[in-house]
Amino acid sequence: MSKKEVIVSGIQPSGEMHIGNYLGALKDFVKLQEEFECYFFIADLHSLTEDYSPEEKRQQITDTLIAFLAAGLDPQKSTIFVQSHVPAHVELAWIFNTLTPINELERMTQYKDKSAKQKKNINVGLLTYPVLQAADILLYHADQVPVGHDQIQHLEMTNIIAKKFNNKYGEYFHEVKAHMKDPVRIMSLTDPEKKMSKSEPGSYVGIFDEPEIIRKKLAKAVTATDAPTGEMPKGVKNLFDLLKEFADPPAGGNTFDKFDKQYKDGSIKYSELKSDLAESLITYFAPFRARRAELTKDTEALTKIMKEGAEKAHTVALKTYKEVYEKVGLVWS
């Protein structure tokens, strides 16, 4: 029996999980765990580069774990853990820091973007973020990493760091490939020119939003946006994209076809489109809300999952780190 390829990916605990996050990552994670050896982690160390309060951060970490589990990630099929619970991530990142030229990091698009957004907090972590990300990936000798097009540059940096290590200390890390999927770009409900963001209340639907909240948010969704002749307005297209993903029967089916036909013949009523989409989202995420209610009451189960996941990850990470220690000439006590 051939060994399964390794997949590694993480999500930052930096706010409420919304349907854009779900379609962009979590939904795919659930499928990947059936085919690959998966390491899915809560990237709490990465999230420290942003402005936050310690009290919020602790809750965000727990909430992200609950979102993982409610979405269908299974601790029996995947290694699920909190990044900071495995110290080798930071330790390997330091070794990689000594190999990575500053100019390589300064050209990273995400560093420039985040620095522009948080001008009063341009910390070293924003610059070295890709180095820690390389450690996250290479600790587990990942074969593939699920990435969107905006993360390709970071994966390229991971492979650059791996090559620099191999050239200096001998062949050890192999090239990591991108696990690409069809891009899913869900736009803001209130400003369809922008990507859906948890930083803008009302612009997103959370995966745990209550039914009435979903109905209110969809009712206010923008549809009347300018568009070139013959093109669907971005706000309308966003609603159709969501309908295709979440309406029943599968992949939108009859519901999508009905509204598509109405749009083309000019008889569409956007209030009905929004209402049907809201009910589809309510139905789709009902099991998520129920699972969340169960998990929130069972803190012992959550602690057990975090502890066991960290132990499994630590076993693999420590083996890699010991071998790296030996290669770079450090002494293991």
UniProtKB/TrEMBL annotation:
It is found in: Cytoplasm. One of its GO terms (biological process) is tryptophanyl-tRNA aminoacylation. GO terms for molecular function: ATP binding; tryptophan-tRNA ligase activity. SUPFAM superfamilies: Nucleotidylyl transferase (SSF52374). ATP binds at Q12, P13, S14, G20, N21, G148, H149, D150, I186, K195, M196, S197, K198, S199. Transmembrane segments: none annotated. It is an enzyme of class 6 (ligase). L-tryptophan binds at D136. The keyword Kinase does not apply. It holds the Pfam family tRNA-synt_1b. A motif ('KMSKS' region) lies at residues 195-199. It catalyses: tRNA(Trp) + L-tryptophan + ATP = L-tryptophyl-tRNA(Trp) + AMP + diphosphate + H(+). Its EC number is 6.1.1.2. One of its GO terms (cellular component) is cytosol. Keywords: Aminoacyl-tRNA synthetase, ATP-binding, Cytoplasm, Ligase, Nucleotide-binding, Protein biosynthesis. Catalyzes the attachment of tryptophan to tRNA(Trp). Homodimer. Belongs to the class-I aminoacyl-tRNA synthetase family. This is Tryptophan--tRNA ligase.
